[in-house]
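Co-fold these.
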Amino acid sequence: MSEVPDNLRYAKTHEWARRDTDGTVRVGISDHAQEALGDVVYVELPEVGRRVQAGEACAVVESVKAASDIYSPVSGEIVDRNADLIEKPELINQKPYAAWLFAVKPEVPAEWEQLLDADAYRRVSESGD
Amino acid sequence: MGLIFDLSQPGRRAGVQVPAQPAEPPEIPERFLRSAAPRLLEVSELDAVRHYTRLSQRNYAVDTQFYPLGSCTMKYNPKVCHALATLPAFLELHPEGMEWGGQGTLACLFELQEWLQTITGMTAVSLVPAAGAQGEFAGVAMIRAYHRARGDTARSEMLVPDAAHGTNPASAAMGGFRVQQIPTDRDGNLDLEALGAAVGPQTAGLMLTNPSTLGVFEKHIETIAAIVHAAGGLMYYDGANLNAILGLVRPADMGFDVIHLNLHKTFATPHGGGGPGAGPVGVREPLLPFLPLPRVVREGSRYRWLTEADCPDSIGRLLAFGGNIGVLLRAYVYLRLLGKEGLARVARYATLNANYLQKCLIEAGFTAAFPQRRAVHEFALTLKRLRKERQITALDVAKRLLDHGFYAPTVDFPQLIPECLLIEPTETESKETLDRFVEAMSAILREAESDPATVRTAPHSLAVGRLDEVGAARRLDVAYRRESEAAVPEPAAFPGNQ
Amino acid sequence: MPFIPHTEDETRAMLAALGVATLDDLFDEIPADLRGGEFPLPPGSTEMEVAREMRRLAGNNRPLVCFAGGGAYEHHIPAAVWQIAVRGEYMSAYTPYQAEASQGTLQVLYEYQSMLASLCALEVSNASLYDGASALAEALLMAVRVHRARAKRVLLPRTVAPGYRRVVRTLLAPQEVEILEIPYDETQGRIDPDRLAAYEGQDVAALVLPQPNYFGQLEEVDALTGWAERQGVVTVALVNPIALGLLKPPGEWGTRGADLACGDGQPFGIPLSGGGPYFGFLCCRREHVHQLPGRLVARTVDSAGREGFVLTLQAREQHIRRGKATSNICTNQGLMATAATIHLALLGPEGLRRTALRCHHRTRDLVRRLVAVPGVERVFEGACFHEAVLRLPRPPREVLARLASRSILGGIALGLDYPELAEGLLVCATELRTEAELEAYAQALNEILAEPWA
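Predicted complex below.
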């Protein structure tokens, strides 16, 4: 059974989101997602400064057998990206909840509330979606 | 076994292959010239012959092994097709000299166009696409051109079944369309309700393989065509599986407007370890003006290429010249050998072999993905039980088959069948070969009980064991570089640029 | 039965196992009305009958002494190349999906990639595309993807082969990439670097640099690449692989080199065959490898640490990425790449250099002889590699027809694609042409031009 920390929010598309104290939202992929994907060999991250809409594909995570678009859970400007992952994509498999991909400065506060909590996401990931 | 680069010795060369040392330098200013020779290798002719002959022996191929690779139609490639397509008179022809020197080649291509028109029921055929995917692009581009020519620019969406080959959505995207996936129902047919809901004024067409990639015939094909046509869309036929109905059913009669064929599948031209293939396209009358160029036309007793001057509305050119002519000639020879009755025999025996093999494998304990359906020229097994009970995947079974001397079926495609093996025996395999394959599969099934680790870590008897694909992608080594570039002496100095 | 091994007894036994009476019963799921199609085709023939017929048809081809290039070149092909390449183990294998049982093909392709990357002085080569023209189109689509701003506008000089430009238009049109054609300098027959100033700040993704160009002329690739570097424009080199034996490789153009290099590999051991199959090559920098279309082979190790080869970065490709793949290409021209690898191994760097030099000299000699014919002159100044444009005093199409009746393919008439060069003829002589053949061409041309003309 994959791990789903209670202190994070989630999207149905298997991203997790964490809100920093300054309101910045960091985004990664869930334990369930990394397991389904297999050994990650490559990530493509958005440019800092790019504006994204909630639900917009802005990163890619690739394994040997699959490629997965990563959708920003919230709208806003990309303010940071985790460049460590470019050299070490395996961090996503090793510590999915530490391996954030990018950070967004959110512009629509209501979007955060619409994300799934841990219980709701557990139901999504267990339904095998 | 080492790389050819490891055999290289400075100053060694395959002498007779190389022109004599020229006396003069090039009449080219120095700024255009290389400062050092390229870092190729220097070996003798025997070195090269031995190296590449030995390397070839590390391949499984149709000529050496049963190759039941689903959706790829790995049938025997008759030697005579190769021999006759490579007569010197065919090989020595420059593309710019076809009109004067290539009447024989053009005649063959013209005849091939006619054969393929008859086989598919299409009005006209262009032979130019180099492979199935390029044929798909051409087909999709023709659909786009057709709608635009009618002033209908709203048709921006291409419908593709979720079970389709990956090339279908990729070609649709390259052709500038949004891709809308249509689900498959429990029997392996296209979900008619979903199709009905998906079509509309935005629908450019539907790309369909029939028999489908799931190894069954799309029973409601006539209804599907009616739905798509009623919405103003066109029907695209992916000919990857034509082998199952060759000489029995014409794609035109199923309601298709545009088709591509894979000559390297159905028409027995060799796959070459990944090409060259040929992916001719055919159309019904309304799309005729858009066919890609060039096509061959007969005028009296002479043949010539049609060009932009003849076909101003064509989608244009896909290749610099007239297509993979060498491949087309092989297919033409194959058709002449088979003739009308031979074509239908191909479909009948390909279907017999697939159904027989499926039946035997079910009896041996395997699970068919669609046991309620008649198999066509191929069929899908699902190994999800093996995965659940023994943690053995379809890939593991595929790798273990290599140890039994068989190439593996297609693994994990179509993606909607969990732990899928797609098996296509083709008509050129004998009953004994099929029976031996069943024995090997049965042995693997027994071994999955008695010694699952051996299956999981297969293959064990080849020159290499299971290869690290993850490491390959993470530490990307896609070109040889000398350990120490500086330590290698420069090859011969260059006259003219000192 | 041709190529079907079943005996009658076996067919009967198999049908019995399936519980059906006839082969046609196996098609019972196909609606009956679809099974009534007519196939008015001739009956099959025996191998000897078909051989006779194909020899007759081959006899309708007429051998012409070839002085045409324009993207396809007649070079010597060592006998060893195709004797090995057509071994069934190479020829009748599929794309190497099961790596462990495809090490032959995979290692050959790795060696191919190494040779091509080295020739272009770039880090990565894919495992082949269909031909040079489609490779150029793929390179431009890739250039748009790797361009910082993904600008959808590319610069395509008119010195790129017209056939290539047509293919680029076909393949780029649906992506709505705008193609700006750059004129050439009428004296030099090449891009005037100063004329590029007009495209500065125009949101351009890529610049194509053909070397040598379609006219055989050498482009000022350093200056042009330098311009592209300063403008943040992706440089796409379009090169003749034989010329790379002599000319500066794309990876060394300008200060940081071209970004992509592509071309047609036909000159490496592939017969002319009327136009195909040939193969396209495409090389790039390491940093752009994830945007590369087509198959790519990597070296790796197996579970016991033994070296082996696999297809890699397949998530770029259609069978995984589907509608979002870098290209729709699946089947490529693998066997042609195999032949080219063997060819290059035999040729080596010195053989390649000598071949290039010999072609260069032969063309020079040809031009000297032809311009000695009254009324014939060279059109452009400056250095060329192994092709040159001549001006004829008579319509080139008709001159070519008369030459053809003397079994000479005299070149390519340019007027159709370049109305301003209505009198232009593009000629080429490779290392295969002999002094006697050059002389025969000059003499024939002399006589033809002296004939009465309507």
